[in-house]
Write a structure and sequence with these properties.
- This protein has six helices and eleven strands.
- With 290 residues, the protein is of the alpha/beta class.
- The protein has one domain: Rossmann fold (3-Layer(aba) Sandwich).
- The protein has an eight-stranded mixed β-sheet, with helices on both faces. Strands 2-3-6 form a three-stranded antiparallel β-sheet.
- α4 links the parallel β8 and β9.
- α3 packs across α4.
């Protein structure tokens, strides 16, 4: 009978565990009826484990989707970020550039949506970056904006974030965004796909991206020891924003290379980068931080 005294404690622990897992919702297909231009013979997604780190890599994506992480109503800041993990357009590193990022944002009251996009450089792929991967990102932005009130999101505080190849997708999404089509039969397509901000983390293939005075504010981050095209490309990209008089923030870590993301046990200066990102997100969205 004495075991009953532990019941309140166990119930409290169970509630805490359930609350933590409730933050991640089931994946939502961007086009429930099938994505435009999808390969109907594509088959199911493939998950591969990268043995040195235990990371999961997703490939063979033919049903693009987002995985929502929604903070509680009490904690919500109204900010939302659609995250495109990297993987060279061949795979998607879903853990250290996806789940771990979304969880960290969620802990700080920021809604996060991990994008599983079609892969343009996978073996035998029928997709391209601009016609499929970028359009998956644009659709994801529209979807989040269309359900903003449901998820306690401010429709004017929705941005994109991308790592490596995903950074290219995020940057191109800002370039190709539109205000939506008021005459569209699909309700989601009536919403704007323009991000309010962009976070480009060691973004690849950015040298040819053309900015304009309509570009969204940017947070740019990378490592000095990354490949030359990225380590210098981040600085060049910052100067492009400066030339267009678009607010931008640049962080280059001296002892970091490529693909660091967020991993348990990270040390060194570059392991602190999420705090800089969150401070920037609060700042540009007019939210005070402690």
């Amino acid at each position: 009978m004495k075991c009953y005294k532990y019941v309140p404690f166990l119930v409290t622990i169970l509630i805490q565990v359930c609350t933590a897992y409730a933050q991640q919702l089931p994946a939502i297909s961007l086009w429930p009826g099938g994505a435009p231009g999808v390969n109907p013979e594509g088959g199911e997604e493939i998950v591969r484990i990268y043995e040195p780190t235990g990371d999961r890599l997703i490939s063979n994506v033919h049903n693009p989707s987002v995985i929502p992480y929604i903070p509680s109503k009490e904690k919500a800041t109204g900010i939302a970020v659609v995250i495109a993990p990297g993987g060279g357009h061949r795979e998607i590193w879903i853990d250290h550039e996806g789940y771990n990022i979304a969880q960290r944002l969620n802990e700080n009251g920021i809604a996060a949506f991990i994008l599983k996009y079609r892969l343009a450089r996978a073996e035998n792929s029928t997709y391209t970056v601009e016609d499929h991967s970028v359009k998956d990102m644009l659709r994801a932005i529209r979807l989040v904006r269309s359900r903003a009130s449901e998820w306690n999101i401010d429709p004017d505080k929705i941005g994109v974030m991308g790592f490596s190849a995903g950074g290219q997708i995020a940057a191109l999404a800002d370039v190709h965004a539109d205000s939506g089509r008021v005459d569209a039969n699909d309700l989601v397509e009536t919403f704007s796909s323009k991000p309010n901000f962009q976070a480009l983390i060691y973004a690849a293939w950015t040298n040819d991206i053309a900015l304009s005075r309509h570009s969204s504010p940017a947070f740019i981050l990378g490592g000095y020891q990354d490949m030359e095209s990225i380590s210098t490309g981040m600085a060049k990209l910052y100067l492009k924003f400066k030339e267009q008089n678009i607010p931008a923030e640049l962080h280059i870590y001296a002892n970091a290379g490529h693909g660091f993301g967020i991993r348990e046990g990270d040390t060194g200066a570059s392991s602190k980068w999420p705090a800089a990102l969150i401070a920037w997100l609060y700042d540009i969205n007019g939210i005070g931080s402690d």
